[in-house]
Amino acid sequence: MAAASRPRASSSRSGSVLEEELSCPVCCEIFREPVVLKCSHSFCKACLQQFWRKRPSARECPVCRRRCSLTEPPVSLALKNVSETFLRERGLAPGMRPEVLCAPHAEPLKLFCQDDLEVLCFVCHTSRKHAGHRVCPLEEAALDLKEELKKDLGPLKKNLRFLYEAKQECEDMTVHIKGQSQRTEQRIREEFERLQQFLRCEEASRLAALRQEQEQKRQLVRRRTESVTREILSLSHAIIAVDNEIATNDALFLQNYKNTKRRAQCTVQDPEMVSGALIDVAKHLGNLKYRVWEKMLGIIQYTPVTLDPNTAYPWLSLSEDLTSVTNGGAVLKVPDNPERFDHFVFVLGSEGFAAGRHAWEVHVGDKGDWVLGVVKESISRKGKISGSPEGGFWTISHCEGEYIAMTTPRTQLALERPLETVRVQLDCDAGEVSFSNPADMTPIYTFNDCFTEKMFPFFCPGANINGNNPGPLKICPVKVAVWNSATW
Asked: Is the dihedral of CA 306, 311, 314, 315 positive or negative?
């Protein structure tokens, strides 16, 4: 390929360096009306204005991105003069492109070899190297190849658009994560405040009981103290009287001897300690934490399954405690993350099961449309889904008054009475999913299969067209009992 040089007048290294120094960083041409910013970078005035028009919110230097003032940058007269002098020496008027020359022959590059994809001068064209090659004018080749590149730009621009969309999704997800964190933090604080309030009330109640017992025991001891004090007073009077009689003359002493003897021989019962006068410390402190925890169970609800909001279809609204789901009929602004269903109003439980037996009950009420059951972890979350065991779904549904097991083909279920609550029981080891009515424990339907991966609880509150199916699916809490082996 013929090497290209810049202006006709000179192709030396010093000329190339000077040309680079006099080139605008935006258009890569020799400066035209150069302006200088405070950061010392220079640009063509028109190039800088065009750059700023494309980014009206960020008036910054195209090179170093430093913020610029709102005042128009001054024209650099020195740089303008040097640039114009440089162009005149090249035989070009200001604003014209310098003619590119063939380095070996110092001739203008006017032709293009389509076989070697090289630009040629007329001397190169006549050389043995390009003999018999397809050669066309430079302008025609540039036009054709530019059109070809424009076609190649289509997929690139499409990919760039996808990348911008992905970036926007990441930014939206960052905002969503922040909101999730704030809401979750608030919920955690509220739950702990409830527990702390319970503990504060329980502490106050037990301290009040302690103070009440203290007062009762104090009154008991006070009454005994008063009784002993009266006996002390009576006995002291008797002792004084006898001492006084002993101190009198003999005639009076003997005259009153019988009475004095009777007073000296009065009996006093030995004082006894008051029974039950001490605080029953064991009653207040014995197994204190256990008894408080046992009482705390009264304000705590436990559900064996909670819902995963990151899987919920955008129309679904979940309760704060993640135990009920409603089709609100309106799209919520949530990220389209890989775990989320995007075609059906589905949501999964937050925990999957790979072994053991698990059961939960779901209150369906009078809903006209719902689907319940389990699904395997690897089911597709995007697009249309085959809701059958072959597709990884083991479910039953209620639609238009009919109960159906979602088999292939569908199995219609005959029930004696409408269901208000459905019990779902999963036995991973036995490969069994069974449904029953917890009101009377009558079986509804049982699937038998081989489960090779985690199974997740599945919920679908159904369509809610014009508000005809607004009720929630609610996972029922279970009663928590404390088992004490010492009383077994």
From this structure: negative
Q: At what angle do helices 138-247 and 288-296 cross, to 10 degrees?
A: 130
pLDDT digits (tens, 9 = 90+) for 157-211: 889 889 988 898 889 899 999 999 999 999 999 999 999 999 999 999 999 999 9
Supply 314's token pair. Answer: 């955008």
Do residues 42 and 68 lie in contact, with contact meaning Cβ atoms separated by under 8 Å?
no
Kindly give, in sequence order, each residue whose CB lies less than 8 Å from that of residue 439, ignoring residues fewer than 6 positions away: 420, 421
Whole-Å CA distances, 87 to 24, 71, 105, 184, 286: 14, 30, 22, 67, 100
Q: What are phi and psi of 411, to 5 degrees?
A: -115, 115
Task: Give me the numbers of helices (H) and strands (E) for the chain, helices first please.
Answer: 9, 20
Q: Which of 367, 386, 371 is nearest to 445 (CA)?
A: 371
Q: What are phi and psi of 3, to 5 degrees?
A: -70, 140
Winning range, highest mean pLDDT, from 79-93, 112-126, 206-220: 206-220
> Which helix (H) or strand (E) covers residue 394, if one does?
strand 393-399
> Does residue 474 surpass a pLDDT of 90?
yes
| CB-based burial label for 461 (10 Å; 0-12, 13-18, 19+) | buried
List the end-to-end C-alpha distance of the chain, in Å, as a whole number. Answer: 97
Q: What is the pLDDT of residues 232-242, one digit of tens each?
A: 888 888 899 88
Distance between CA atoms of residues 483 and 480, nearest Å: 10
Render pLDDT for 245-302 as a digit per residue (tens, 0 to 9). 888 888 888 888 888 888 887 776 777 777 888 999 999 999 999 899 888 888 888 8
Q: Quick one: residue 208, left, alpha or beta (phi over 0 = left, psi -120 to 50 = alpha)?
A: alpha
